[in-house]
């Protein structure tokens, strides 16, 4: 090793830059190039197979703001994201608290909880497609056998707007629940046992212990878990693509799926890019707010 190389290796500032350089190159290639390409597409009239492309400014965005399908997809995106994340946080907190206790077969329960996250989401969604099928639904047949559904009751889970939205939210919660549970479980196990013992000595009950000690201490971790969940909910379209394809009548269409169906299936790359870019400010603002809130709660 030469003297110059050794001096660079001893320089922490340059060594840090060299070590992080591959990650920066990877991010720029994987995220930066497609992002700037989408920016270019969104202000043009490019379509699949087009040989000439011209600059049209913000015309694609103005057209979208007067498109009922886009406005419905925008509203559905927020409903889908925030309702599913509220359910994920509540259920993940409950599961994490349960897994803190010692009981026989605990490893089996942990394995079953992790399976939805380990299994490919496409295969899991196909399984749910059969579970929610209008003819072969195991939910409907079980409900009929138990007398929950009467002779004239047969829910069409993916064919009725309200039930279809509830179905895709349920499947999304089922998919993200393991990740949120593991994150919260790690946060709960990091709380010193002395704090729990002191609360027990002071006579704190379950609810007081939970809301005055446990939740404030794991709130930064809960916000990080929620941030991951919101990003997944806003950007993922596999569940919707497999189960409903945005139907019935676009009542389950979200921005990610609408961008795909418009830009790829419909061939209008410019409009698809414009739809996808609406996600960027929403995700950026959500990330900044949650990270700032997490930092403040951690400091206090």
How many H/I helices?
A: 14
How many beta-strand elements?
Answer: 0
CATH-defined topology of the largest domain = MetI-like fold
Task: Tell me the β content.
Answer: under 5%
Into how many domains do the coordinates divide? 2
CATH superfamily membership of the largest domain: MetI-like
Supply the CATH architecture of the largest domain: Orthogonal Bundle
Instruction: Tell me the major beta sheet.
Output: none
| Overall average residue pLDDT | 82
- Kindly report how far apart the N and C termini lie: 48 Å
CATH class of the largest domain: Mainly Alpha
Radius of gyration: 24 Å
Extract low-pLDDT stretches. Answer: none
- Structural class given helices, strands, pairing? mainly alpha
Subunit organisation of the chains? single chain
């Amino acid at each position: 090793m030469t003297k110059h190389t050794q001096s660079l290796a001893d320089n922490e500032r340059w060594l840090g830059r060299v070590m992080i350089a591959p990650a920066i190159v990877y991010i720029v290639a994987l995220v930066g190039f497609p992002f700037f390409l989408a920016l270019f597409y969104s202000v043009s009239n490019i379509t699949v197979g087009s040989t000439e492309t011209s600059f049209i400014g913000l015309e694609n965005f103005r057209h979208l703001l007067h498109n009922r399908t886009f406005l419905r997809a925008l509203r559905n995106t927020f409903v889908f994201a925030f309702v599913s994340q509220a359910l994920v946080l509540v259920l993940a907190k409950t599961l994490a608290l349960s897994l803190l206790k010692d009981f026989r077969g605990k490893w089996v329960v942990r394995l079953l909880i992790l399976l939805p996250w380990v299994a490919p989401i496409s295969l899991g969604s196909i399984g749910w497609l059969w579970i929610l099928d209008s003819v072969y639904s195991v939910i409907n047949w079980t409900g009929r056998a138990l007398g929950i559904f009467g002779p004239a009751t047969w829910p069409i889970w993916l064919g009725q707007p309200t039930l279809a939205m509830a179905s895709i939210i349920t499947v999304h919660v089922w998919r993200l629940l393991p990740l949120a549970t593991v994150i919260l479980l790690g946060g709960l196990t990091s709380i010193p046992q002395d704090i729990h013992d002191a609360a027990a000595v002071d006579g704190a009950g379950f609810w007081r212990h939970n809301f005055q000690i446990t939740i404030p201490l794991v709130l930064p971790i809960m916000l990080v878990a929620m941030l991951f969940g919101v990003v997944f909910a806003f950007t993922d379209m596999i569940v919707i693509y497999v189960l409903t394809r945005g139907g019935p009548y676009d009542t389950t269409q979200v921005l990610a799926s609408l961008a795909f169906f418009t830009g790829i299936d419909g061939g209008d790359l410019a409009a698809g890019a414009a739809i996808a870019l609406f996600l960027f400010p929403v995700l950026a603002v959500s990330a900044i707010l949650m990270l700032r809130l997490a930092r403040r709660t951690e400091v206090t």
